[in-house]
Design brief:
16 strands; alpha/beta; Carbamate kinase; eight-stranded mixed beta sheet; 6 helices; globular
């Protein structure tokens, strides 16, 4: 394991502020995980490909990833966004390599055969499409890059045991990877000032065990569901759209009181 391990996850509209985020990162052992669902939606729309979203029985809304959509995921997340991050890191003198879960089978996921969705108030069983549940991460490969002072930049597209590309949850990937790397700190750059209370004010600090008691919107609820599984000592949810988003972060610090 590496000392002072930091894992950064960039998602949401924060993808649009990469230069500011990447120029503000500390000079320490660093892994970057990223999604890019909003950019996928934009590109799909420009190509005339309609995106379908489904709702689970627990109320989570997610993209239905069909064959055309997983092609766009590979093109946008494993391609454009991933290489934009690497290009900017190189500009700032940081050695880095752009990957996704497919490369060297870094992230192997199980394809969801069927999923339960709610349509018109009724539960329905449908084909799982090209969506995956993470089974295995090749941490040794990631560590080999870190030992050579190379920043791994990993997009949230995985490979199945049948060698198919799969869409995976980037927050889940960040949490699992940070835990296996024994990261001291896990930072999520998003487009809000952290976790907001009912009056719209930022909750500055909170314990990991308290996350389930919060009444938050859908997007943050899903993020916190994944974060609650974290083993990192400290988790930060910061606004990646601000100036100096890491060194002068605006957001919430979550202390892990379960370790």
């Amino acid at each position: 394991m590496c000392d002072n391990m930091l894992l950064i996850k960039i998602g949401g509209s924060a993808i649009e502020n990469l230069e500011e985020i990447l120029s503000d990162l500390p000079n320490e052992n660093l892994v970057i995980v990223h999604g890019g669902a909003k950019k996928v939606t934009q590109i799909a729309k420009s190509m005339g490909i309609i995106q379908k979203f489904v709702v689970s029985p627990s109320g989570y809304r997610s993209r239905y990833t069909d064959e055309k959509t997983i092609e766009i995921f590979q093109m946008v997340i494993a391609g454009k966004i991933n290489k934009d991050i690497v290009r900017i890191l190189l500009k700032f003198g940081r050695k880095s390599v752009g990957l996704c879960g497919i490369d060297n089978s870094i992230v192997v996921s199980e394809k969801k055969k069927k999923i339960i969705v709610v349509e018109e108030g009724k539960k329905k069983l449908v084909d799982g499409g090209y969506t995956g549940r993470i089974k295995k991460i090749d941490i040794e490969f990631i560590q080999s890059l870190l030992k050579n002072s190379i920043i791994p930049v990993i997009g949230s597209v995985a490979i199945s045991e049948e060698f198919e590309p799969l869409n995976i949850n980037a927050d889940s990937l960040a949490v699992k990877m940070a835990s296996e790397l024994d990261s001291d700190q896990l930072v999520f750059f998003t487009d809000t000032d952290g976790i907001l209370d009912k009056d719209g004010n930022t909750i500055k600090t909170i314990k990991l065990s308290q996350l389930g008691n919060l009444n938050v919107g859908y997007g943050m609820k899903r993020k916190l569901f994944e974060i609650a599984k974290s083993e990192a000592d400290r988790i930060i949810i910061a606004n990646g759209l601000k100036d100096n988003p890491f060194s002068k972060f605006r957001g919430t610090v979550i202390e892990n009181d379960r370790r």
